[in-house]
Amino acid sequence: MSTHPLDPIFHPRSVAVIGVPSTRRRGFGGFYESLREAGFPEIGQLYPVNPKVDEIDGVRCYPSLLEVPDPVDYVISQVPAPAAPQLVDQCIAKKVRAIHFFTAGFSETGDEHLAQVEREMMAKLKAAGIRAIGPNCMGLYVPASRLAFMEGFSMEPGNVLLLSQSGANAGEIVSELSGRGVRFSKVISYGNAADLQAHDFLDYAASDPETDVVAAYVEGVKDGRAFFEALKRCARVKRTIILKGGLSASGSRAAHSHTGSLAGSAAVFDAVCRQAGAIRAETMDELQDLVVAASTNTYRVKGRGVALIGGGGGGFAVLSSDAIDREGLTVPRMPASAVQQMREFIPVAGSSVNNPIDAMPPEDRVDDMLQIVATAEGIDMVFMGPMLGRPGRPQASDQDGAPDAEEVAKAMEEKTKKAAQQLRTLQDETGTPVVGIFRGGRMARRMGMESEGFFEAAYREGIGVFPSVARAARTVARVLEWRQYREGMPDIL
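Predicted structure:
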């Protein structure tokens, strides 16, 4: 555990959900159900509070926070905005450590009176030594502490800390990246940032031993100097990726109506990230791709020469080569010596070994081909196409001769793991970073590549996988740019 003063917030011994719905609620606002599914009652005390009901699913429901008989570390507020000031007074009397306001309807509305109410609540909490997350946010997801703000989140801890001013974006990022194998140390949705702000959480992330990669979606920064200093501290020791919302005129207006945030210019924010040693993502897809790169061996790429293997046809090779070139990478021709070696077991007809590599060698010579390509002069990385990365469709049947679904699933899982291990073995034996490419869609399914488990299996082997060559090339180009402007800083790339 960290010695940082914010660390206790992420490890509460007891949680009270105030204003818990009397009927089961899933998704946004279903905090009580999410915490139960996450298993928090197995390690701590969970108290539902609602004066209108006596119990929820057989668990006693308390009429107010003050009537909870035991100490409470962490409070989740689901009460309407007019009831929030009274809850603040109860939290002070109860001596809680922190409160998360899912409650909205304060400064983000643009109403000065409601903004003043927010300021007065925060002043009271600060005087009492109570920290606040929000208002207008989803709060915390901490797998190790069995905290979750939505159902269906993995409770397997990881090494990525996500900070998001938007709750919806936080949920989307967690869901999408979980499907690609990423696991999280902490996720914080912090909304209006009336108390704890981005710089507070960046400062915490810098010292968190459970975190190696930090990703943040930020709309507004209230204290520019504090943000810059915290970002510098964090980015010096953690691979840090920032997606800044509200950099356009329209986006700035939307950000202000969303969390009451005022945005800034793209040029200024770019300069801030560069000076700090962080990288600015330009889109949500890019943020997710950079997180995958930063938490796998993709970030170890140091050159621009790409060997593209597989893909299923000349058209794919042509378009992929164009995409790679557009990002300032290259697809160099294979040296004559490498071509000669491969021609010893790959026929000339129907194959290409000049790079891109579109060839199907005998099964017992596949590894030989991969070794030759990965160690060829001018090759700095291998983009492994789906022809070799796909898990394939196993042959399995029940007594009637029809495919047995369970056996098929098991065989597919095994083939997926082996395909991922093949990429890891190639990387380990050659020292050349391997970047996985796994295309989806109808054509992929027809080729037996419908298993999304390949993303996760490869990630567990330290291999970053991307849904297209274009996105892989863009990500690698950004990593190389990142590496270049971090010269002279601690080597974390």
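Summary: The chain has three domains: 1-136, 156-295, 300-485.
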